[in-house]
């Protein structure tokens, strides 16, 4: 058993969080992860209907504590989402991609642990000032929307801040094995926040074809790009591009964002007509796609990841034991 600030704070057995991923992580995935002793999160996106949340929370709640991931820039436009989420009494809420400050107090009053993904040291400092309970250092290796700093240098920076301020830090971006979990724990993180690896599980709500694409992609297959947001006219803050599996659409438009915006009235409807055809449509995924070798039940994956992490940490311990 590995005990960290995260396992103690949430009362879970394993220092692993299955990341909130809009379109991929519903209540079934979160529940399967929580059943296995880790912490499962439900992802709420910019277009998620508020009344979707309660059914998903119900699915997760049967299995243990669960969390919900919200995007701060979306809450500015859709405060109804925060009401819908807090009504379900999640054990944790993440407020990512934008300023968490306006929402921290309400989440805490509702009894949830407040988490926030941060992509540089300045954002980490601001999240601490806003009063978040847990920082999640999200490197550019991550799938989905993220910043520009790699997980390794970012995690080291954010750990310095977290240790100084007494705030636990989780690592996100590029972790897909027990080795990765052991690595970030050895660095001082209180847990691993894992997305892409959990996309390729039986309970995730991605299509079978998208899961197959993840299975067949290697670590060089992704691109960090705004083109899929621009073509759909989704007003993501410019600083957060999305990491997706490269395809014909991104090959054609990445680097030509201004032209894409100019031609959106014709390219947008053509793009919509190709939804589900992944030569054109997007599959957000991180550099950890190269670590995905199967699509197991999520609970089995948690068990496997933790067994490997524990054996790696024991090996680290043995390294110290070998000192003369
Ligand atoms: C398909 C996909 C969708 C995502 N959607 C969200 C989301 O809705 N909210 C959020 O806070 N993060 C979202 N993320 C980011 C994850 O929370 C997490 O930071 C990331 O998956 C970690 O990196 P990894 O994919 O390398 O494990 C998403 C990631 C992926 C892969």
Structural class: alpha/beta
Averaging pLDDT over every residue, what do you get?
97
Rg, alpha carbons: 19 Å
Please state how the strands of the largest beta sheet are arranged side by side: 1-2-3-4-5-6-8-9
Helix content: 40-55%
| Main sheet record | 8 strands, parallel, barrel
CATH superfamily of the largest domain: Aldolase class I
Distance between the first and last residues' Cα: 28 Å
Predict the CATH topology of the largest domain: TIM Barrel
Number of helices: 16
- Identify the bound ligands: flavin mononucleotide
CATH architecture of the largest domain: Alpha-Beta Barrel
Strand coverage percent: 15-25%
| Tally of strands | 11
State the domain count. 2
């Amino acid at each position: 058993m590995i005990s960290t600030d995260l396992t103690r704070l949430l009362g879970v057995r394993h220092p692993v969080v299955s990341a909130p991923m809009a379109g991929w992580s519903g209540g079934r995935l979160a529940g399967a992860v929580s059943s296995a002793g880790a912490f499962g999160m439900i992802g709420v996106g910019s277009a998620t209907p508020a009344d979707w949340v309660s059914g998903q929370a119900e699915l997760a709640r049967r299995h243990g504590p669960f969390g919900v991931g919200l995007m701060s820039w979306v809450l500015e436009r859709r405060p109804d989402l925060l009401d819908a989420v807090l009504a379900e009494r999640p054990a944790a809420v993440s407020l990512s991609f934008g300023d968490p400050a306006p929402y921290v107090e309400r989440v805490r009053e509702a009894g949830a642990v407040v988490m926030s993904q941060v992509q540089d040291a300045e954002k980490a400092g601001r999240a601490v000032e806003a009063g978040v309970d847990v920082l999640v250092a999200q490197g550019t290796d991550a799938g989905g929307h993220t910043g520009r700093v790699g997980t390794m240098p970012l995690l080291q920076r954010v750990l310095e801040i977290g240790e100084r301020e007494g705030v636990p830090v989780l690592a996100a971006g590029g972790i897909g094995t027990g080795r990765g979990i052991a690595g970030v724990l050895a660095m001082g993180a209180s847990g691993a926040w894992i997305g892409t690896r959990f996309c390729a599980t039986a309970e995730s709500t991605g299509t079978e074809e998208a899961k197959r694409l993840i299975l067949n992609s290697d670590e060089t297959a992704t691109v960090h790009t705004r083109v899929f947001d621009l073509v759909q006219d989704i007003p993501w803050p410019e600083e957060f591009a999305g990491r997706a599996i490269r395809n014909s659409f991104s090959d054609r438009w990445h680097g030509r964002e201004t032209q894409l915006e100019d031609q959106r009235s014709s390219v947008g409807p053509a793009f919509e007509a190709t939804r589900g055809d992944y030569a054109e449509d997007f599959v957000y995924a991180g550099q950890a796609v190269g670590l995905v070798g199967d699509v197991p039940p999520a609970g089995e994956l948690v068990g496997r990841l933790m067994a490997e992490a524990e054996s790696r940490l024991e090996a680290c311990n043995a390294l110290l034991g070998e000192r003369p």
